[in-house]
Design a protein that fits this description.
2 helices; alpha+beta
C-alpha cells in the first residue's frame, strides 16, 4: 500500500513537470522582429533580424541553442530559415526567400524554449504580428543603442512593451504556467501524500490494537 502510494505521487510530480512547457528551461521566451519591409514578394531575398528574449525581456540565462524562423504555408511543408547570432546578446538574423505567394504562418524556433507564434505573412503583402505576452519587469538590460524594438527602459529600469505592427490575430498566446506554480502544486501533492501515509499508519495501529484486545 505504502509503495503504491509513493509511486503514484512520483508519477503525478513527473507529469506536472513534463506537461508544463519550458518549466525546466526558465519557463518561456518571446521572439521579437526588427523592423520589416512594407511588403514581401515571392522569390526575393530578405534579411530578417530578431530577438529571442527569456520572459520577454532579457537574454537566456543559459545556453539557448539553435534558433530559426519558420514559414508554414496553408498546404505543404514548412520552410525553415536558420538564424545566426549577431553581436548583441539574444540578437539573431536569418536570410529568407519565400518560394510562392500565399498566406504563411510565421513562427520561431527558440532553442531550449518552446516555439513561438509570431504572426501571419501574406505574400505579396506584409506581416500581421500577434501581440506578444507582457514582458516580466525588473530584469537587468544588457543593451545599448541597439536593442529589441519592443523593449524600452523607463527611469526606474522597468521593462515596458511598445506597440508592434498591426495584427490580424486578436488574442495573445497563452503563457505556460510559471515554474513557481508547478513547484507549489508538486509540494502540495507531496504534503497530501505524506498526510495519507501518516493517517494510514495510525489506522493500521488502531486496527491491530482492537484485534489484540479481542
Amino acid at each position: 500500500m505504502k509503495l503504491r502510494l509513493v509511486s503514484l505521487l512520483g508519477a503525478i510530480l513527473v507529469a506536472l513537470l513534463v506537461s508544463t512547457p519550458g518549466a525546466t528551461a526558465g519557463n518561456w521566451a518571446t521572439t521579437y522582429l526588427d523592423p520589416l519591409p512594407d511588403t514581401f514578394g515571392t522569390g526575393q531575398t530578405y534579411t530578417v533580424g530578431y530577438w529571442v528574449l527569456q520572459h520577454g525581456s532579457h537574454p537566456s540565462y543559459g545556453e539557448l541553442g539553435a534558433t530559426a524562423l519558420v514559414f508554414t504555408p496553408g498546404k505543404g511543408d514548412p520552410v525553415v530559415f536558420p538564424g545566426v547570432a549577431l553581436r548583441e546578446p539574444a540578437h539573431y538574423a536569418a536570410a529568407i526567400a519565400l518560394p510562392h505567394d500565399g498566406i504563411w504562418r510565421v513562427s520561431a524556433r527558440q532553442g531550449i524554449f518552446s516555439d513561438y507564434e509570431i504572426g501571419s505573412l501574406t505574400v505579396p503583402g506584409r506581416l500581421a504580428v500577434t501581440p506578444p505576452p507582457a514582458p516580466v519587469a525588473g530584469e537587468k538590460q544588457p543593451w545599448g543603442a541597439i536593442r529589441p524594438p519592443v523593449i524600452a527602459l523607463d527611469g526606474g529600469g522597468a521593462v515596458q512593451a511598445q506597440p508592434v505592427a498591426p495584427s490580424a490575430v486578436a488574442a495573445a498566446p497563452e503563457s505556460p504556467a510559471p515554474l513557481g506554480v508547478v513547484l507549489a502544486v508538486a509540494g502540495l501533492v507531496v504534503v497530501v501524500g505524506a498526510a495519507f501515509l501518516v493517517g494510514g499508519r495510525r489506522i493500521q495501529r488502531r486496527l491491530r490494537r482492537r484485534a489484540r484486545e479481542r
